User: Fold these one by one.
Assistant:
Number 1:
Amino acid sequence: MMKRGIASKGRMSSKEMKISVIIPTLNEGDCIGQLLEELPQDAVDEVIIVDGNSIDNTREVVQSFGYNAYLQKSRGYGGALREGCEIATGDIIIMMDADGSHNPADITKIVEMMKEGYEYVMASRYLQGGKTEDDTWIRFTGNMLFTWLTNIVHGMRVTDSLYLFTGITKDGLKRLDLRCDGFEFCPEILIKAHKAGLRFAEVSAMERKRFGGKSKVNAFFHGLKILKEILRLRFQPDIYKKPRNQDFKKIFDGIAENYDAVSNVYSRRRRGEALVKWAKGDILEVGAGSGAVAMMLPNRSRLVVSDISEEMCRVAEKKLGVKAVCCDAQDLPFKNNSFDTVIASEVIYCLDSPEKFVSEAYRVLRPQGTLLISCANHNVARFYDGLRRLMRKMGISRMYFDDRNRKFSELGQLTSMLQQHNFEVREGKRIMVLPAPIGKWLDNVFEKSPLNHLGLFIIVRATKNVR
Ligand SMILES: C[S@@+](CC[C@H](N)C(=O)[O-])C[C@H]1O[C@@H](n2cnc3c(N)ncnc32)[C@H](O)[C@@H]1O
């Protein structure tokens, strides 16, 4: 039985579409082999296994089938699926579980519907024709309650909201801005797909008993998180909204006049010191803000500063006595080969596409020119965000917002992105910002010790390779 969706149907192009299947695994060595054997080879073009650091033989089993098991960098079930989505190259992405409860024979049904033009197709155990061999009365009651709640709260008409055996188009996925790490990813993707207006359908499915291993779902604990997510997406829909370029422009326009007062002087000085010693020749600083880093350059006669915020540009011009160019770092209004150094200090987390900025930096740099990037170090910055949030709640923090888009805030990730853009990474390090400016020598001692992993900033110096 197939149930056509809420929105109108629009047939996709008839050309063959590439199908990727994403399967998150965590200690599924007992199940994954049988599941991989059952995958319909004629319907699937790419299989992506994202493994959450299993301690059993999951990865070995996957590899014995000739597939790659990607080691998960993020956390949780949702984190694994989001990572899989980034890796997947298919036009259609199917998400399914590794434990055998999702029957691979149902993939064909999902794909058929998607080829008819639906953008989000979910399998349902409770649609007419569907069945489950794995329900306990607790699970059945929970599924019914959550499905009912999702329908009531979000104005939907689905029959099985938590069964994440789903197909989505790559284009549809790009519109969702998914954030959840845990099992609350299930309502998140469904509700966001609905809100984004994806063409939607359900197909009946047969849930089997898992082949082996243990379920990782705790009905009470995960149930509460799922409940919270369903309500949050209704009452605080913007909570996870990623600020886009234009949002940042507005934020920084608003705080330009007192930016120096709200941002931490000591941490600005630390990252500035680390960057300016490498800057030489004709220098461009993007996202220069109030000019705090540029101010530290010993010679500013060949400096150009730029920022997306007009107000910030005004403040920087006043402070530095140089002309500031108001522009987006991802679309620089400068000719090829114009600069010897490009600096981006605490900017790339604001960008929609840090990669686009890096290729622009490559273009405007002269051969062997230097790109200097500083950004917050992932886990430490998360800790600071938490602390800042707490202090804001207590009314004792002047910090205006938390960093977002930390895609490249790990040294390894940033380095490999730069290498992919033809930069040679000459130096990459983590900079300590101790709770108080105790002394340079102590900073240096920490930076040279294994404690450098706790550094608040990462700093990279790369040069433009020309082939
Ligand atoms: C955290 S401040 C950093 C300021 C300064 N570079 C520093 O290290 O103190 C980020 C700056 O980047 C700017 N910015 C945000 N998005 C940008 C974009 N797409 N292009 C250029 N600048 C941008 C903001 O307006 C803001 O001035």
Number 2:
Amino acid sequence: MKRMEGGGFEARATMGTTKEEDKAVMTDENTSSLPAIFSSTNEKEQQVLECLKNVIDPDFGENIVNCGFVKVLKVSESGKDVALVLELTTPACPVKDEFNRLSKEFVKRLEWVDDVDVIMTASPKSAMADVPEAPPGLRGVKNIIAISSCKGGVGKSTTCVNLAMTLAQMGAKVGIFDADVYGPSLPTMITPAFDKLEMKEDGTITPVEYEGVKVVSFGYAGQGSAIMRGPMVSGLVNQLLTTSEWGELDYLLLDMPPGTGDIHLTLGQVVPITAAVVVTTPQRLAFIDVDKGVRMFAKLEVPCVAVVENMSTFTGDDGKVYRPFGRGSGKSICEAYDIPHLIEMPIEPGLSSGGDSGTPLSLSDPTGPIAALYQDIGACVVREVAKINSGRGPTAWEKSWTISTPRSARTTC
Ligand SMILES: Nc1ncnc2c1ncn2[C@@H]1O[C@H](COP(=O)(O)OP(=O)(O)OP(=O)(O)O)[C@@H](O)[C@H]1O
Ligand SMILES: [Mg+2]
């Protein structure tokens, strides 16, 4: 099997055969239309499947065969070589290398196997699949993730930009929509070579691109922020989002403005937001504001999958770790609403200067400790979204109940 341009692949049963009819050419697209292989009447294939059942998806707690990831399984005519295609739910799967390695390792334990060729591919479900009236420019968007907090200045845009770069580094196709019309941050935080949105003759908008990430911000419309009334702003946000040609995206990140106003509700009504990442700071004051934000997502039936407690700590020149804002808001939010992941992000001057200079820290120092924390956030998002899409995440009813009802207010039956 060999890689093809554009992420597709060509799987050929070249192992010990030259027969033309044994050759199969597959792309990511037509692999996704293939049914999953759960069992086989061929004895050797069945043995391979049994071996693969030792590879467990840590998020689903299920083996990769029962998860439906095996899409192609071939044993060569010589009967010694095995070719597999494993189709995951996202190209940014944080355990894809582990799946690859373990699959080979277990299958090679069969005494008749000489060689194992594994191709990893992905076929994410589209967020727009169930939206018949979806605007054409958004039809290729698989997942929409809101980066939000009711509170201003807590680091939403910093989180959004660095997370977007990280997801792209993990292999996903990513876009950012800056929903803050009053004070768009993206024009300062990143520096695309060409920073003007172009409107084509048919009225569609071409996003600007930065390091492979597609970006739309009112700040690139050449007008800067403006004094507008609520309905005008909501209309503009709606227009910018829905007339942009996003193309194929695995994750579209929404950099939300502070508050729970018209823009939030408009976005929640215009597009199906898959999940939200909540950003807060450690103070109790932040908890009160962020609590409102989580409740708003509950009303929109959007599950919050991770909390980023930003500016949690800083390390002094003496090497000691200080907590200038106290501790606890992030943990309290997670506990109150059963949000599965908490990531504490320290105060890091490089994050601030990276934001000001237009090169996010996760790009300028991709192997540093801060980039590692953004990789943790990325892994949480990817995993939780995969669970939601597979139906293994919370149902709509559970979502709204869990999120809108603080644990302390619940009664057990
Ligand atoms: N962990 C951090 N360490 C140091 N500086 C940070 C950190 N997080 C954010 N900042 C800085 O704090 C400021 C506010 O961050 P940011 O603009 O991301 O917040 P925001 O929540 O998006 O604000 P707004 O509500 O205005 O949209 C920026 O100057 C940013 O560089
Ligand atoms: Mg912002």
